[in-house]
Amino acid sequence: MAEPNNTPWPPSTPVPGSTPRSQSPAPPVPSLTPNATMSTTTTTLPLRSSPIATHTSATRPIVLHIGDPIKYNPKTYAEFSSAFEVIRPSTAERERSEFIVALKERRWGDFSAIFRPFWGTGGEMGRWDAELIDLLPDSVKVFASAGAGFDWADTKLLGEKGIIYCNSGLAAAEAVADFAVVMIISTFRHLPWCMNAATLPFLTSSSSSSSSTPDTSAAATAFQTCHAQATAVSHNPRGHVLGLIGFGNIGQQIAAKLGPGVFGMAIAYHDVIRKPLAVEKQLHAAFHATLDSLLQTSDCVVLCTPASADGKPLITAAALRRMRPGTRFVNIARGSLVDEDALADALEEGIVGAAALDVHADEPRVNRRLIAMAGLEAGNGSGAHPGRVMLTCHNAGGTVETHIGFEELSMRNIMAVLGGGDAITPVNLHFLKART
């Protein structure tokens, strides 16, 4: 799905000219519980409170609120709106042509921040490119948005204009990691095959209106075949190497959920910047300096890193050929990071044994070859079994708790920056430093 619908995915801006990386270690943040005050709660990380700007009613900074009203955190919003003059343009004003007119005529004055608390709305103006960014008043200091993904905004150009862009990927990390665990297990236990064989033939059978189908039916055959044959290709995750491409908030949570002492997987990772030894020790994670090394070592590869700056795929035909035969593959990052036809080739050839994709290159359209591999077809001449691909609808980060966190974290980022403190989850500080 083309942005600006900013659905959850792993955070951070890639360093130019490098493999995408994730922010890590996770930044210290205040509580993201509903309606939290600005006081902090205790977690495994040191926490800080967000400074709150104090102004008279005549001098309060203006915050441009784009998208739907606050839904989950009214107490925090009351604090937020008392510190700032919040202006929320109408839906019609947020359409690109009218939005441009409004910026040119300074309809909302010299606002200091842009606030987008909900990923499903607030993107009516389309991509934040030079056409929009060049029209922003010099007073803008911070752009804080729901969602983890930000390929719909030119964060480099924002940074060069002196605007800190803050995402809310931290709020989605647990939901995405939980979803990834399910997908990883799916590649070991072939859940699409097991689920489809139990339901799909019955639903599509000519006798589907009856309460049951005779044991001699094709539907019953599909059930019995899966029951008998899935065992031969299913494995416990324990003892297998889980290779994580990107080791930020999401990658580290996946490692914690599936590593030694829980599911018993051996954790390996590749990231542009190696994580502190204390993090590696805590998560029993082995660092691989190159992507090739990780691909050649892993039994299951999980993509949890941001989209590349140049928009090119990271998992190409060449990268897939470096995997060991039968390697499993999971993508909960961005569809643009994967050459999906090359992945389909690798599945047909047995290089990849099973895959699970929550994100797709041309959303909402899903690759037809991968759809076919998610069903109950008999496979191909290589002897591949059916139902080797799990496909979902960019759902990984989509929970109520995630959206609560999106709102809370977006407000906290603005409070922090306009209060004279540090942003909590900035993604483009290196572009601001370059400008300085």
Architecture overview:
Belongs to the D-isomer specific 2-hydroxyacid dehydrogenase family. Residues 128-428 form the D-isomer specific 2-hydroxyacid dehydrogenase catalytic domain. The longest helix has 21 residues, at 169-189. This protein has 436 residues and is of the alpha/beta class. The chain is built from 16 helices and 12 strands. The chain has helices at 74-83, 91-94, 96-104, 130-133, 155-160, 169-189, 191-204, 218-229, 249-258, 277-283, 291-297, 317-321, 340-349, 368-373, 400-418, 429-435, and strands spanning 62-65, 85-87, 113-116, 142-145, 164-166, 241-245, 266-270, 285-287, 300-303, 327-331, 352-357, 389-391. The radius of gyration is 24 Å and the shape is elongated. The strands form 2 sheets. Strands 8-7-6-9-10-11-12 form a 7-stranded parallel sheet, with helices on both faces.
Question: Which features does this protein show?
Answer:
436 residues, alpha/beta, Rossmann fold, seven-stranded parallel β-sheet, five-stranded parallel β-sheet, 16 helices, disordered N terminus, D-isomer_2_OHA_DH_cat_dom, D-isomer_2-hydroxyacid_DH, oxidoreductase, D-isomer specific 2-hydroxyacid dehydrogenase, glyoxylate reductase (NADPH) activity
